[in-house]
Amino acid sequence: MSRAATNLQIDSARLWGTIHDTAQFGATPKGGVRRLTLSAEDKQVRDWFRKACEEAGLEVHVDALGSMFGLRKGRDMSKPPIGVGSHLDTQPTGGKYDGILGTLAALEMVRTLNDAGIETELPICICNWTNEEGSRFAPAMMASAAYVGDFTTDDILSRKDAEGVTVAQALDSIGYRGDAPVGRQKFTSFVELHIEQGPILEAENKTIGVVDSGQGVLWYDGKITGFESHAGSTPMPLRRDALATLSEIVLAMESIAKKHGPKAVGTIGEAVIAAPSRNVIPGEIAFTVDCRSADAAIMDALDRDLRAAIAEIAARRKVDVKLDLVWRKAPTHFDPRLVDAVENAATQLGYSHRRITSGAGHDACNLNTVMPAAMVFVPCKDGISHNELEDATQADCAAGANVLMHTVLALAGVAS
Amino acid sequence: MSRAATNLQIDSARLWGTIHDTAQFGATPKGGVRRLTLSAEDKQVRDWFRKACEEAGLEVHVDALGSMFGLRKGRDMSKPPIGVGSHLDTQPTGGKYDGILGTLAALEMVRTLNDAGIETELPICICNWTNEEGSRFAPAMMASAAYVGDFTTDDILSRKDAEGVTVAQALDSIGYRGDAPVGRQKFTSFVELHIEQGPILEAENKTIGVVDSGQGVLWYDGKITGFESHAGSTPMPLRRDALATLSEIVLAMESIAKKHGPKAVGTIGEAVIAAPSRNVIPGEIAFTVDCRSADAAIMDALDRDLRAAIAEIAARRKVDVKLDLVWRKAPTHFDPRLVDAVENAATQLGYSHRRITSGAGHDACNLNTVMPAAMVFVPCKDGISHNELEDATQADCAAGANVLMHTVLALAGVAS
Ligand SMILES: NC(=O)NCCC(=O)O
Ligand SMILES: NC(=O)NCCC(=O)O
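Above: query sequence and N-(aminocarbonyl)-beta-alanine SMILES. Below: predicted holo structure tokens.
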């Protein structure tokens, strides 16, 4: 690598500026971002991103699920590009960094290479994957899951949000149903920068997380059918209370996850009582379950223990509980050669680092099933994410972007 | 009492017909009724009721909270009438009898007296009280609570539903904000017929419940503030999960109520997660609590135990829980002379009967604080109420209406 390339640093202030400028698209009063996938706010940031890519000389195209790809040519166009990026959608009460840092750092890398006049051997393709968050439409990492063939494009296009709007309708309504078939854009390998979304790097005072693995995920849709009756006149022993049933399930999930110590988590994130009323015993509740582990055997145990607990609770309370697995993502083991490349970049740049497991799911986890992939983490304040208070420092964001760029340069090769 | 009056029976088929004809106003596909107070459906049944009262020769007026009064003159107009009636509003997924039976039986009684040409000494006033259910606006038995002075009319007019619509706006929108000041219509005493809404009469095969008491009610609004964070990357011990907190509160309420055996009940009927998402640990939940006992000392214990349990749970889980008492109704002890009158009527008509405590609240419970009041119960199927499957037999409805009529005749006196 040339001396110029070896010492190359991204423009920290410019990266910080784009993060904070684009946070206007869906800004919330509490300083967070609400930019649900394929919403009007998502269209705003997509339009901005397309223009920024074009201004950086990239050739932009959009696939049938709305994922955006910006190609920077390399000297050797016979090989697929190195993919770099993340997502620009957020949770309903999300932060300014989750996904966004990784996508805008990819753009910053291109701008830096342009400024330095650096050509790479392989082309580079920066990506904005549709619906990584999974909050409006399930599953999470939706577009990359279709990309790797876990779901067909038609299946995904027909998925509905809580209002009954399909992915297809949502794409059309913001004009982001592209022409390119999902999967046509090939990659040689893929690298993603992200905030850790957990407390480990901060606690250990490390700047870079070299992500070598990721938790597997189980997502369920649940429905409890008890019996509505009068809150005043129905004796306690005769009740078939759907909310008391849910309460036991929530606490069972919690203790099942805790049983596996730090190796598992379990959460009920959504619960909606049908026709709620103060003086009516809840009769019907829809809920979701999210549980995870990096260990496939523990994932099986979580599923088994949760189902057994629910069966016992339902029988004892004489209620009906349905639990449908709607998504299963196996644990991720990132490509060892790429993990080493990330570690080398961090070492060469002199950043403190450690290997780490991702608690969250990422598009890179999906992509790793069909190509070599890896990830770079940077700390976030108090490990907080999926919260409007999500925060990270300018220095850590820049460090992560530098590690990302040097990993990509190592993978793509410098031509000039 | 004349022989004609002694043997008088209401028209069972006509009563049954009006119950089932008016069930069209807000009919649900499952055979129930959704007729939230002051809704378009409530206007429909009110318009029907006004016309039916006028056709029965009653002088109808409406008070400032929309309660409807139909006066049948007596020979002695120097005394206030005997009040009879109940309510025509329902729960979101309510039945065809709760409140409706009592209101339409009062109308049926007037029709029967008219047909038999019977004049009473005292006048009779049949009533449809606004918002007995308390589902759209709190508290329940709202209009009768204002009638007895527990709340001012202005306070009640400013109460809001979940959409922010005030009682005043809702009254105006259906044209039922009347001219009469709340409380102007005086009564000598008040009698209300209702389905039991509990399982006792059916289990003991009794036709009539002679209601001598009613449970007191505590209603609370609660709010849990935990901390939203990522469902995948937040370790279990670091969570401040609002839904796990609620779950412990729900189960604590259940066991506190059970501790008092059949003498108490406790229910969480509403719980709403703010900004729910599958992969976000719930950070904020609003909920309601309804707990009851016929024993004032037990009500105090319920309040104390619930607050203590919540304080312990909140401290342990490092979350904030607010619990505001929004309504407290003391236990009811109905007027002994009127309770005897109900019992005498049941005995004379040859119906099996027993004394009973009302599990539910009723307008008669409020009215009993300022005038002698009593209630008649009839069985309902499996004790089910606040459910679209609520059911009762024609024979039991007719028996209840006959006991109601003969109680009223005993109180009003027969003139001719
Ligand atoms: N990184 C991230 O927050 N992804 C959302 C999908 C998940 O729940 O893990
Ligand atoms: N009777 C009846 O269901 N009343 C509603 C108020 C209550 O008791 O919750």
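Residues 296-317 of chain B form the longest helix (22 residues).
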